[in-house]
């Protein structure tokens, strides 16, 4: 140690000395923790392998194209479109892509209230490509998740986006939880998920030395990706087609039927009273995520049904020196209540956030539809929940779970405890705060979380179709959801004659 310090002092400048000592201290700290409890991998999935494009390399050309002045010949009409899509999250974008693929002459507009696409749920999530374990066989979720995962891997490969098929363990800590592992195995197999295997505690330790559990379901086809980047990439494909106009900072606030049977959408910048923006479209598809119920209400859909309740998922991340604690997705068995699948460990791909391991999310009720922090509060949003009987039914039925989530959101130790159940070496000084995401979940009568995607058709005399519920795994499934929505629209709208 003395020799090391002498070497540093005599050969390096002051600033270099500081960072060098800091690095040594971090390594020393990591080693001392390691010798007591945990073993670290050398790398996370995708690190150090064949060089993938960096974020700047990927986004540089995308940004340049986005801000280039469009060729007026190529740009679609300013205010009338064949189709308008409201909501530039991954569901709206993938649906738009599917329409352009199927109909070579159609023009469309995407209206997005934020200054950029993919900024809400699509930009704040775990980034997991789910294999299809959790969904009822025969459901749309099961079908679109399994198909969507294949399409997502293929899309990332085609566009050279970072993606890793790193696999996942769903761990059971005791015999009772093992029953759930067996159920997931049966369900996943029925859904057509490939490569599933139930493994015992010894095999778990061989795959992940820091995970201690009774048994686990191993899913090799689960992966990781950055959905925000996928969204940016789709948006640019749409722009490049010359048939899609992505209108950002355009919040759709009013929908009217015109005398010639089209839909007029009036809107403008969020919060602002003006200036008013206006477009018309032959048909409209809304994919409003956190606001899907309110938008449906504006279009004339049934606002009393499929009310959205929003939950914040807070993440921690492993500090750089501990980020290789695991190298696969490690999930507990589902917590019940129909809301997300519990605090898990997920390595991230090298896009936007770098190679890290995130730990989370919880599922804490929010006091604002965009409640990214605990104290974000909007009276209208709270009032909506107060008046929502399905929400009360859910909260009362799952009182312990709901309160536990609130407590966990506020208390780091309680949060960590959920992870320590199966990664016992995890300690408070290994993690630092990370980002949070807000998820939309529809609750039906009796407080049951809607367990499938919901599409509402025949709104405004059949001119509008609303996507009402698209919770996880809607990112994984997005390309397949796009196919499903366009299939539904084709059935209802007889597009071949009317849209083109
Ligand atoms: C914490 C968390 C973790 C998750 N983990 C995963 C995961 O690992 N894997 C997975 O597959 N899924 C995951 N999900 C689910 C997934 O992120 C969502 O299901 C998916 O992003 C939904 O996409 P969307 O396009 O419907 O919604 P969003 O991405 O929310 O997009 C809706 C868009 O509509 C816009 N909008 C709303 N109102 C208006 C209006 N009036 N006018 C114009 N625009 C409007 C919004 O600004 C937004 O951009 C997770 C979600 C969360 C929150």
TrEMBL record:
Annotated EC: 1.1.99.2
Annotated keywords: FAD, Flavoprotein, Oxidoreductase
Record field: transmembrane: none
Swiss-Prot/TrEMBL cofactor(s): FAD
Molecular function terms from GO: (S)-2-hydroxyglutarate dehydrogenase activity
Pfam name, any one: DAO
Occurrences of domain FAD dependent oxidoreductase (ranges): 82-488
Reaction catalysis annotation: (S)-2-hydroxyglutarate + A = 2-oxoglutarate + AH2
InterPro entries per the UniProt record, alphabetical: FAD-dep_OxRdtase (IPR006076), FAD/NAD-bd_sf (IPR036188)
Catalytic class of the enzyme: oxidoreductase
Statement: the UniProt record of this protein carries the keyword Oxidoreductase: yes
Gene3D superfamilies in the record: D-Amino Acid Oxidase, subunit A, domain 2 (3.30.9.10), FAD/NAD(P)-binding domain (3.50.50.60)
SUPFAM superfamilies assigned to the protein according to its UniProt record, in alphabetical order: FAD/NAD(P)-binding domain
Assigned protein family: Belongs to the L2HGDH family.
Protein name as it appears in the record: L-2-hydroxyglutarate dehydrogenase, mitochondrial
Organism: Parasitella parasitica
Gene name of the record: PARPA_08916.1 scaffold 35213
